[in-house]
Write a structure and sequence with these properties.
Helices cover about 50% and strands about 10% of the residues. With about 240 residues, it is mainly α. It is globular, with a radius of gyration of 17 Å.
Length: about 240
Amino acid sequence: MSTWIQNKRKSSGLSQSEVAESLGISRPTYIKLEKGISKPTEDQKTLLADILDISEETLDKNSAEKEIKVEIKLKKIPKENTEKFKQVLLYVVSKIGSRPNIGQTALYKLLYFIDFDYYEKYQEYLIGATYIKNTYGPTPVSFAKIASDLKNKGKLVEVISKFFYDQKKYLVTTEPEVSALKAQELKHIDDELERLASKTAKELSEMSHIDTPWKVAKDRQVLNYRHVFYRPDETSVTE
């Protein structure tokens, strides 16, 4: 099992650290999962299957491939729109990626607010990405996979810069394609960036920590979009 997972991870262009971060666990803990020393939880099976495009049967010999789909449906995890995720990420980076305060951690939080605020406003998914509760705020599970694919295609460049501390940043190489995004979605993204993009990663993290979807979730648990309807005034975007 471990060799199969290692090969799938490597073929996806992902490092152990990136997969670990997507799962909300440490690299040593992920290594134990990859080597078969410890078993993944049911939530981790679901997320690993999404990250590595594998069936749950590969992680658990006694499971069937169809069970992963049932698990996702029962947990009310939306079907993520991969193409929209790519276009939103490139669009956001093209707009604010060069700002000194916008590193990977800030991008995580901006994508979260873009996604969850849109759902609160329109009761529809924009990207519909899956986010988990991490110590510093919501983490989009597919970010590493999406960023890796865009880097391999030459559309995104990763750099390390100094902003109080070393941070991982991203820059676009060409004008982003936005054909998958509606005018309403683009306006929403622009409004969110105008409202939030001047904040530091710490400020965005603190803001996410008072948001109901993050507060009511358990550590490493998937955040529920429907919890936006119980937000406090500080994070609610509806009048």
